[in-house]
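User: What would this chain look like folded?
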Amino acid sequence: MNLDFFQITFLGVLQGLTEFLPISSSGHLILPSLLFSWNDQGLTFDVAVHVGTLVAVLLYFRKDILRLTLAWLKSFAVRQNTEDSRLAWMLIVATIPAGIAGLLLNDYVEEYGRSLLVIGVTSIVFALFLYWSDKTGSKQLSMAELNWKTVLLIGFAQVLAIIPGTSRSGVTMTAALFCNLDRRAAARFSFLMSIPLILGSGLLKGLDLAAEGGAAVEWLVLAYGALVSAVVAYFCIHFFLQLIERVGFVPFVIYRLIMGFLLLTLAF
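Assistant: Here's the prediction, encoded as structure tokens.
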């Protein structure tokens, strides 16, 4: 990983801005190496800045996470499900398909999926799906009204996010909107779903780094990148939740379409 201070800062900010917006953080992190001939920061740095965004989402939703965790633990003791414990179980189940897919397909995607053509196509295709879902979904249901069929559909939709350019948050929000969740509920459920996946990915890569005996300077680079992405992501979550209630997802659809067509132009 051969990055200077500006590149590390730029990539940390980029990750913080894009992780929770429906525009694909992994796709954006690939672009600097493809467009500006930067050294590819690699998946290890990608995971480090993803861990930064994990810290951000944990802090932002700390009250919800504590409430859901306590309700989930209590469900074992009293053998009784509440609305909060049910939601906690749903979040766990919803992350299983993507977790399995990540373990099985990650190496294949890293080798064949990190290209301008793939990112351009997925940016356009899933932008259109997002627009369709935002326009046709009734947007009437809250997270409390989720059912198991809806949760499983969102969970399997998240599997598609392993393809660069798809956007994990984008595809899960799209599925949630198709299932008639309101915009804020779709976004909050997507954010909470991200926690187990980012945590699991970070732990696996952290173990790999420890086994390789990474140099001290590399750990400092990773820590700084994670800090930058955490700060930016925290404020991004806050303003995004306010924005989508007022204007919806159209600005993000337009951005994805423009980016997708530009990438396809460069690819060809």
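The CA atoms of residues 87 and 266 lie 44 Å apart. If you want, I can go into more detail on any region.
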